[in-house]
Predict the structure.
Amino acid sequence: MTAQNQNGVVKEMPIEEKLKLLYDLQIVVSEMDKLKILRGELPLEVQDLEDEIAGLKTRINNFEDEIKNLEVAVSNRKSAIEESKALIVKYTDQQNNVRNNREFDSLSKEIEFQNLEIELSEKRIKEHTTDLTQKKEAIDESRKQLSEREDDLERKQKELEDITSETKIEADKLGEKASKIEEQIEERLLSAFKRIRKNARNGLAVVTVERDACGGCFNKIPPQRQLDIASHKKVIVCEYCGRILVDKLIEQQV
């Protein structure tokens, strides 16, 4: 980050000032993290419920399609039975007018075949009816689950909305403050800050030296390293966790 003095000469921002901005940004985003913690697991719970509800609706639609197909299959089998019965009547009547035994035997085989077709259709109707009963029970259970999950979702969304509403003003102010600070930090440092913060378990990218140790991972920092940090001559990161290190003086000045 550079700035112009009164004579219009471009001047590099001192490292100390860069460190102050980074530490100030860390304080602000940490406050934003606290607001997110207030919401707890609610956002994830809401998302899980929305996914489960979508899955239940898909399951119900699939059951409904399967039920329609089974009902059509039952109807077709019933029609087939009626057709077979009609053919049996027809072939039986024809047997009374046959001219020889061969024709009689042929018609007997047709009658036998149609009886077998009737038996098969009745078997399939029984199977389809059992499937229909099971599908309808499953769809009733799924609808019950769907109703329960929708009630849960409505309650969780209300809780989330209440918490979000309570913290919105503060969150907006912090977001605006963070944006103003980010505008003053050079892109390279800001990118490094965000990368470190993303990889840090507690969201801390900038930490102070506490009792001769890194305030992030608590590993000891050698005395010479501490002197380098206190000199504010360059940006120094912890050799163990990669966080940016600042001394108490920077903390006090922010």
About this structure: Strands lie at 2-4, 10-12, 206-210, 213-214, 236-237, 244-246. Residues 2-39+186-253 form one domain.
